[in-house]
Amino acid sequence: MTPKERYLACVRGEEHDRVPVTPIFMAWAAHLIGRSYRDFYLDGEVLAEAQLAVTRAFEVDQVSAISDPWRESSAYGMAFEYPPEGVGKPAGPILETSEDVERLAGVDLSSAERCRQRIESVAKMATAVGETHSVLGWIEGPIAQYADLRGLEQTMVDLIDSPELFARAAELLVANGLDFARAQIAAGADTVGVGDAAGSLIGPALYREHVLPWEQRLFAGIHEAGGLVKLHICGNINDILADTARSGADVIDLDWMVPVGRSREVVGPKVCLCGNFDPTAVLLQGDPEYVADAARQCIAEGGERFILQPGCEVPPATPEANLRAFCPSAGCLIEDALRR
Question: Out of 3.40.50.620, 3.40.640.10, 3.40.50.720, 3.20.20.210, which CATH number does the structure's domain 3-338 have?
Fold first, then answer.
């Protein structure tokens, strides 16, 4: 099978030859080709080159346009300082009033410089490997994007005191985000990753009432455009895991603190899970055998519809041998487990 065939078969619950492997590479990929993380997220050519380099070096199944959380925010008018390493530092929130929220209406994300770069990166990667590999686009989810523009602390207050403000903003953000997702699908992405990190911080009742319906609307729109959806909520989602399974996402990422075995019990056999050993304590600080043992445990607990990756981004200083321990390339220590 090609990597793309393998990935799609796994997501759809069809027979496949081995477990797909899809690590989240960002700064590590940039450093592999001798560039800074800032180069990686501000230059679409560098992003495409770096992602293609790690995809080929480790023979993984998906090439990704994930880079940083600020592309859409920059299109909405937020100002940033971009250090050589580490994510951009915003000057401050830009949603202060209901009038500010209304200014989100009809913003064409795809025409903004940083969002256009992502679309171009997707197109370059799809041209290079899209016939053989899955190509992952990326957008911010409704609660994550609102928190980026409003500030995390004020977002938590709004869900209690001003839910109508969040609802109006979410309506506009989802419409704009869906247009951005459609543009990436048109450029060659078969799957769109949706990062909705703040969803892990609000509790199940608030998530169910205020966030899940907007995710469902967004994901339905991505499906209508011909794309699959990968939901990535950083952090501990044990309390909302059952709800995320109702979101319509085709793949649900599990961060390292969300046990794979329990997650499979909660969501059942028909949801594709992806994860999830600890990127720091295992991948960065462990040795190859330790990484291999953790990967084997994830595979054993994940069931048939399971994709292997660390719980979140590969840390920049991760030893290459530790990556090779679980990737299907030279140095792999888990070939037997990947083949089940």
Answer: 3.20.20.210
